[in-house]
Recover the amino acids of this structure.
């Protein structure tokens, strides 16, 4: 990548400076609401999971996991194409459209109470498209508005802080509506909030235009969108995810499960072929990413996969074995919010004083330790022992890895690729959450002896959490290699520089 590709565009440097203080606060608040509403949709499903399942007559844990996995699936798989649409049509348009789309399908999710669980899962899946439009374009709006520096670091940290607090508030409101009123109001209230955010976004978000040169014909648009790459990539990710999340329900003995998995892998292979050899405008600008970025994305995949397993089985453990009501479990989940804010502020400061590799090592360690603490927690132990400590540790994994990775990619790609750069991180995060639930479910059903007794069910839960510990450990290993590689490259560069300086001195 050329050096001039990394220089901030002049308009990007001055755009934030044109805001009045009130408009800047509102701008940051509305953009952070994109993160808030996306992550809230995970929380609102966790706390009342059994209440919603009982209303449909569903108790199968494999089906219940789809209530959350279906949403994360579409968030993770459609983020890339949504980011490309933002690059072509404008981040503001896609961002506000995301709120409107989320409002529509939140309304349908609530109305599904009059139908069946299939409509509810369908609505949850389509809700994910709204999140897929919101997340990458929110990050792109911030990346294109603020120039690299301490201010941008802190804004990204604030954006990251919205994640744990939105998940927390989602669980609280989901529990309040479901336990004290009626669970559909959880989704209808989301629809109202989304419409308010869309209206406010129209008022405070500026239009950011790029000179997107492409043939205005349908064929030209499809090439600019890299439609072939999008179909292969989305198709492959969806099929692989469906195979892994369906296998715990019907078993790997069903031929269609492994056929779907094989076809999905072939689609993903076709995606890479299209991106490298066919596409005129690749969906992912691989030329803009260094090997270091690949290490970071690998760490993010392991860490957030570990988190996806943790958050699902943490709630299952609290409600099934400690018999916590949705409201009590939500109250016990409260430490995640303030600790997430502290973690984000500290991370914003650390990013200006510490290597990204060390930040990733610390975040992967937090993910791993959090899973260890809940995996070994006795059923009848007091909440204030391992469980409370776990909730103090796990936010550091979320809020150190996400801001560091998004900031690194935002600074490593030129302004016109901000949407795609942001998309890649959020794709990895959300897809890892969904796919990891399939891995964990497979482990659970193979170790729980059919789940015929509470002891067997608990054994399955712990087996899934051990899987999460393994993913976190792999993330620690990758981040350690990345950090070591950074030190080694710096030492070799310094050695080469000293030798060149010595040769120049000897020449005189």
């Amino acid at each position: 990548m050329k050096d001039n590709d990394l220089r901030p565009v002049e308009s990007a440097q001055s755009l934030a400076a044109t805001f009045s203080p009130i408009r800047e606060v509102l701008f940051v608040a509305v953009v952070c609401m994109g993160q808030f509403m996306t992550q809230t949709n995970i929380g609102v499903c966790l706390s009342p999971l059994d209440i919603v399942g009982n209303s449909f007559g569903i108790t199968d844990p494999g089906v219940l996991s789809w209530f959350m996995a279906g949403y994360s699936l579409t968030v993770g798989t459609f983020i890339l194409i949504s980011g490309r649409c933002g690059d072509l049509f404008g981040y503001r348009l896609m961002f506000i459209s995301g709120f409107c789309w989320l409002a529509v399908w939140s309304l349908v999710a609530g109305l599904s109470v009059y139908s069946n669980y299939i409509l509810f899962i369908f609505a949850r899946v389509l809700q994910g498209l709204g999140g897929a439009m919101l997340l990458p374009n929110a990050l792109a709006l911030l990346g294109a508005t603020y120039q690299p520096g301490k201010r941008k670091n802190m804004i990204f940290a604030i954006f990251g802080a919205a994640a744990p607090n939105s998940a927390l508030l989602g669980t609280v409101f989901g529990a309040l509506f479901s336990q004290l009123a009626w669970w559909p109001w959880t989704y209808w209230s989301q629809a109202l909030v989304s419409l308010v955010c869309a209206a406010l976004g129209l008022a405070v978000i500026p239009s950011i235009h790029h000179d997107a040169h492409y043939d205005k014909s349908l064929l030209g648009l499809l090439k600019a969108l890299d439609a072939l790459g999008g179909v292969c990539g989305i198709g492959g990710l969806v099929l692989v995810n469906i195979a892994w999340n369906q296998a715990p329900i019907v078993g790997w003995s069903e031929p269609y499960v492994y056929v779907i998995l094989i076809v999905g892998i072939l689609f993903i292979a076709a995606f890479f072929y299209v991106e490298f050899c066919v596409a005129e405008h690749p969906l992912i600008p691989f030329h803009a990413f260094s090997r270091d970025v690949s290490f970071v994305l690998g760490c993010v995949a392991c860490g957030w996969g570990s988190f996806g397993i943790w958050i699902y089985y943490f709630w299952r453990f609290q409600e099934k074995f400690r018999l916590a009501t949705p409201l009590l479990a939500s109250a016990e989940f409260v430490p995640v919010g303030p600790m997430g804010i502290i973690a984000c502020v500290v991370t914003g400061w650390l990013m200006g004083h510490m290597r990204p590799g060390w930040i990733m090592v610390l975040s992967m360690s937090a993910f791993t330790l959090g899973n260890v603490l809940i995996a070994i927690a006795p059923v009848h132990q007091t909440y204030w022992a391992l469980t409370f400590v776990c909730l103090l540790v796990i936010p550091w994994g979320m809020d150190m890895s996400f801001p560091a990775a998004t900031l690194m990619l935002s600074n490593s790609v030129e302004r016109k690729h901000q949407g795609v750069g942001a998309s890649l991180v959020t794709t990895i995060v959300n897809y890892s959450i969904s796919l990891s639930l399939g891995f964990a479910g497979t482990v659970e059903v193979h170790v729980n002896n059919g789940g015929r007794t509470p002891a067997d069910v608990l054994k399955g839960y712990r087996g899934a959490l051990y899987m999460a510990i393994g993913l976190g450990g792999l993330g620690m290993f990758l981040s350690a290699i990345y950090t070591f590689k950074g030190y080694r490259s710096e030492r070799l560069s310094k050695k080469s520089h000293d030798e060149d300086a010595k040769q120049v001195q000897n020449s005189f």
The chain has a mean pLDDT of 83.
